[in-house]
């Protein structure tokens, strides 16, 4: 178990964009399982007679709704040269930011390029995922066939059956034993976001483990579930706000599920917005003797205001999402009399500035997963094989922002490679 001390030590211890170059092989769009110039082995592998790997990628060449702008593009990838590495997708999630990026409303916009042989300059969707190394160029030093890797940075495009990247763009997963593609493919965005927000914005009193609190909305999200488990691990109590379900039984089941992950208290947004919430907070925090020192906000609007009002003087609220699309409005008194500090966090920019710390954070979370102390998020698995059609895959992406989902959409590639 990682003690607060060990984690504190870990904390203190703290390019290259490019899609795969398309091979000089005609890029074709089509539904056929393998191109006529390729051999299908066992219906799994598609290898061209010239040694090219056949690949498909979900690309977009203009901004809009995923169902309208995503296309499945078929192309070929050459054998890797120098420090290049050829990869096969294992699992890649569909996160809210991925959809915002395709809609053109996200601040980071991958460049539209023709490197995959698309007719229009395009970008590949997706920002995180687990890949398996299928071949390496002669100059590759630290990766071998069979290794599992993730991309160092967001914005490189992960919704693709195969990719060719430079070794320098990849993080090798050391000791993949005991880990699944889902766990590795979803570790670099949400758990890292939760981890850094809890660690970097609040000077926790490590002598008071179990006597300090954080509050968060969107507690059922991937980030929220990670925050609950990290809080439990680090002795920070959590007050968690979720949206009410259709029936009281469903709401209770959700509360129970989060409590099993380690949530101290779970309330609905509706409960938080009633007059009695203040008294309830006083009661659980022993009349404020156990301070609420951090709020994590991914919703905005009234919900965020209510969150801020629970904070003890000199505390921080970190905003990292805006699921309700409502602005954050704050009573001036919270700034003047309570000296609250309002921050924002964006893991993409943080990760680009702190690559080594990001890698260390990922390692810490993977260690918690290996030892069974960090549970998987609920998943809506979307199998992607050679027969998968573009519109069907795009429809799954479209559902990402729907809310009240039973699990996060995750592409799992079950086709073969070579
Ligand atoms: N800033 C960063 O670096 C960073 C990094 C990662 C994620 N994020 C943001 O964090 C948020 C959660 O991402 P995720 O991948 O963890 O989410 P997720 O697992 O895909 O779940 C989405 C969450 O959003 C909630 N939600 C959806 N619509 C809502 C609304 N109108 N009002 C309140 N809640 C709503 C859902 O609540 P229900 O369960 O009730 O449907 C669910 O808990 C997103 O805003 C995402 O963009 C930011």
From TrEMBL:
<keyword id="KW-0276">Fatty acid metabolism</keyword>
<dbReference type="InterPro" id="IPR036291">
    <property type="entry name" value="NAD(P)-bd_dom_sf"/>
</dbReference>
<dbReference type="InterPro" id="IPR013149">
    <property type="entry name" value="ADH-like_C"/>
</dbReference>
<keyword id="KW-0443">Lipid metabolism</keyword>
<dbReference type="Pfam" id="PF08240">
    <property type="entry name" value="ADH_N"/>
</dbReference>
<protein>
    <recommendedName>
        <fullName>enoyl-[acyl-carrier-protein] reductase</fullName>
        <ecNumber>1.3.1.104</ecNumber>
    </recommendedName>
</protein>
<keyword id="KW-0496">Mitochondrion</keyword>
<dbReference type="InterPro" id="IPR013154">
    <property type="entry name" value="ADH-like_N"/>
</dbReference>
<keyword id="KW-0444">Lipid biosynthesis</keyword>
<keyword id="KW-0560">Oxidoreductase</keyword>
<dbReference type="InterPro" id="IPR011032">
    <property type="entry name" value="GroES-like_sf"/>
</dbReference>
<keyword id="KW-0275">Fatty acid biosynthesis</keyword>
<dbReference type="GO" id="GO:0141148">
    <property type="term" value="F:enoyl-[acyl-carrier-protein] reductase (NADPH) activity"/>
</dbReference>
<keyword id="KW-0809">Transit peptide</keyword>
<dbReference type="InterPro" id="IPR020843">
    <property type="entry name" value="ER"/>
</dbReference>
<keyword id="KW-0521">NADP</keyword>
<dbReference type="InterPro" id="IPR051034">
    <property type="entry name" value="Mito_Enoyl-ACP_Reductase"/>
</dbReference>
<comment type="similarity">
    <text>Belongs to the zinc-containing alcohol dehydrogenase family. Quinone oxidoreductase subfamily.</text>
</comment>
<feature type="domain" description="Enoyl reductase (ER)">
    <location>
        <begin position="67"/>
        <end position="411"/>
    </location>
</feature>
<dbReference type="GO" id="GO:0005739">
    <property type="term" value="C:mitochondrion"/>
</dbReference>
<dbReference type="GO" id="GO:0006633">
    <property type="term" value="P:fatty acid biosynthetic process"/>
</dbReference>
<dbReference type="Pfam" id="PF00107">
    <property type="entry name" value="ADH_zinc_N"/>
</dbReference>
């Amino acid at each position: 178990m990682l003690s607060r001390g060990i984690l504190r030590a870990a904390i203190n211890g703290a390019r290259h964009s490019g899609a795969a170059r398309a091979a000089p092989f005609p890029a074709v769009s089509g539904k056929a399982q393998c191109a006529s110039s390729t051999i299908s082995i066992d219906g799994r592998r598609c290898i061209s007679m010239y040694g090219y790997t056949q690949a498909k990628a979900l690309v977009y060449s203009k901004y809009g709704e995923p169902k309208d702008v995503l296309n499945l593009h078929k192309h070929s990838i050459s054998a890797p040269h120098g420090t290049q590495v050829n990869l096969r997708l294992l699992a890649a999630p569909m996160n809210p930011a991925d959809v915002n990026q395709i809609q053109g409303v996200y601040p980071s916009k991958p460049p539209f390029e023709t490197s995959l042989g698309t007719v229009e300059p395009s970008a590949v969707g997706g920002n995180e995922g687990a890949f398996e190394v299928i071949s390496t160029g002669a100059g590759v030093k630290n990766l071998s066939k069979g290794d599992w890797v993730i991309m160092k940075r967001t914005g490189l495009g992960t919704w693709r059956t195969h990719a060719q990247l430079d070794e320098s763009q990849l993080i090798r997963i050391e000791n993949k034993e005991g880990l699944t593609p889902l766990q590795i493919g979803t570790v670099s965005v949400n758990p890292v976001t939760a981890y850094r927000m809890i660690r970097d914005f609040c000077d926790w009193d490590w002598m008071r483990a179990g006597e300090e609190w954080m509050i968060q909305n969107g507690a059922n999200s991937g980030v929220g579930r990670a925050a609950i488990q990290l809080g439990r691990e680090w002795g920070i109590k959590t007050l968690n706000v979720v949206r009410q379900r259709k029936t009281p039984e469903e709401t209770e089941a959700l509360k129970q599920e989060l409590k099993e992950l380690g949530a101290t208290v779970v309330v609905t947004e509706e409960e938080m917005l009633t007059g009695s919430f203040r008294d309830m907070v006083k009661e659980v925090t022993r009349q404020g003797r156990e301070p609420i020192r951090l709020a994590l906000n991914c919703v905005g609007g009234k919900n965020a205001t209510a969150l801020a009002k629970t904070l003890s003087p000199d505390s921080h609220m970190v905003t990292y999402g805006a699921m309700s699309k409502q602005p954050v409005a704050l009573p001036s008194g919270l700034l003047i009399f309570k000296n609250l500090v309002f921050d924002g966090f964006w893991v993409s920019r943080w990760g680009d500035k702190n690559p080594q710390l990001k890698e260390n954070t990922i390692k810490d979370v993977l260690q918690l997963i290996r030892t069974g102390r960090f549970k998987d998020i609920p998943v809506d698995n979307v199998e992607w094989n050679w027969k998968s059609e573009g519109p069907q895959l795009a429809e799954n992406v479209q559902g990402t922002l729907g809310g009240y989902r039973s699990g996060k959409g995750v592409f799992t590639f079950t086709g073969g490679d070579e």
